[in-house]
Amino acid sequence: MVATTTRPATAPTARQVRARLRRSRRRHHSGSLGDTLTDVYVVVLFVGMYGWFAVDGLRGHLGSAPPARGDTTDRYWVAVALVLAGAGFVWRALRVVGPLLVTPAFQAWVVSSPLDRRAWLLPRFGWLLLGASAGAGLLGLAAAFTGGSDGTAELGWAALAGAACGAAVVSLSVTAQAARREPRWAGPLGAGLVASGVLLSLLVVLGHAIGFSLPRPPVSLTVLVGLLAPPVAVLVAARAWRRLGAVDRAALTTGTQFADAAAHLAVLLDPSMLAALVESRRWRSIGRVRSRPFRAGGRFAVLVRADVRRTFRHPGAVAGWAALLLVTYAVAVAVPSVVDVAFVVLAYLATKRLTGGLRTVSRSPGLRRSLGGHEAVLRLAHVVVPTLGAVVWYLAALPGVRPGGGAIDLLLLPGVVAAACWDATRAPLRPGGLVVVAPFTMIPIDLLRQVLRGPDLVAVLLLVQWLLR
To answer: Do the beta carbons of residue 111 and residue 117 sit within 8 Å?
Structure first.
């Protein structure tokens, strides 16, 4: 007998798997390359056109509306604070989403196989790094142009600084995603950036109130960041590349739900899925709370106390409410010409931060049935906290907008509360309904009417304020 030997099967490489998947997609793909390029052209055209109009209009407005004292130093530091806070929120969003993602199908059939994880994730990481660098570079360029920079060197440094910072932030988030446990520096990094922006804004606002302005740095911050950020970005990108193989399956699918909810929001204009997901994640992060019985009282009083307790168990709502108050004063310092408009919009957003209880009760028939009583009483009990919060916020922000107030505030304050409650009592979105066929697109009237419930009343308030003033 002749002994036969079989060669052990070897796992395919990541390149072979990607080539096989591309061939499978081509067999099922009905569109042509021309259709894809046309779609890309339309998206780039619209983004570039409207983006240029927005940047150019904002630049013209800032140039024609200097700060109240004619000094642009406060505006400069407010812009720096805005960049720091924005970077902190971007970091938090990247940590929530991933940023490396795979679909459940890829998780089951590809990521769970004996495939070289680093080789499989390397193209995704490269495209993510390229997109983040390009987007952050364009954002830095637009910010510099909006701020009044005209020189090629200034715009170039701004684009370089933005691209390097974008690449560094994405690389750091990938490194944190590859860790088995949450790195100790991941949480303090985002919180530190946001806190730095808040403290800097507070210093600018307080200094403006007493007639003191922070001096400008002797060296341009844009040039300094443009010199220091690229080497750091290269180092952290190299570290992220070495850690790609350590990204496990659970980390790759953490942000899939958020990505699907964001796509649902962009396509159907329905934020309910994303809001519900964020709400569930937030309450699960709290974990355990101290249970205390309510004091004796009627149904209305107990419901109000429950809403107060729910609000303070959500520190982000109270922190956002206070942060919007600081934003109002920062706008009054940096761009006083738009402070009236910003005041109404920010008052609406601050009140909306406190309508979580009203929103939950209004969109949950089962909860209303379990609580019992008349539905009007349930809703009125959950209007107390937003109303009190709106009154306190409005009175605290009014000195920075209109010292002494006026008769128009007797209309704006109830209107802001009504707009926030009008938005909170909105029913879940129902797709379909009346659609108007326009020359360029179809306009879903019923869907827009549902989405704009609340902001439409804010627009009416802004119009009334403009007419009366």
So the answer is: yes
Residue 125's contacts (CB-CB under 8 Å, 6 or more residues apart) are 100, 174, 240, 241, 244
120 vs 135: CA distance, rounded Å:
24
DSSP bridge partners of 444: 435
Report the length, in residues, of the chain: 469
Q: 98 φ, ψ to 5°?
A: 165, -85
Return the closest-CA partner of residue 18 out of 178, 127, 132.
127
Instruction: Tell me the pLDDT tens digit for each residue of 186-227.
Output: 888 888 999 999 999 999 998 888 888 888 888 888 889 989
What's the pLDDT tens digit per position in 423-455? 888 877 666 666 666 665 666 677 777 778 888
H or E segment at 210?
helix 186-210
Beta strand pairing status for 442-444 and 435-437? antiparallel
84, HSE (Cβ side, Cα atoms, 13 Å)? 19
* Cis, peptide link before residue 99, omega less than 30° from 0: yes
**Cis, peptide link before residue 188, omega less than 30° from 0:** no
The contacts of residue 405 (CB under 8 Å, 6+ apart) are 398
Question: Which residues 6+ apart lie within 8 Å of 451 measured at CB?
Answer: 269, 429
Burial pattern 359-389, b for ≥16 Cβ within 10 A else e, equals bbbbbeeeebeebeeeeeebbebbbbbbbeb
Written as one letter, the residue type at 352 is: K
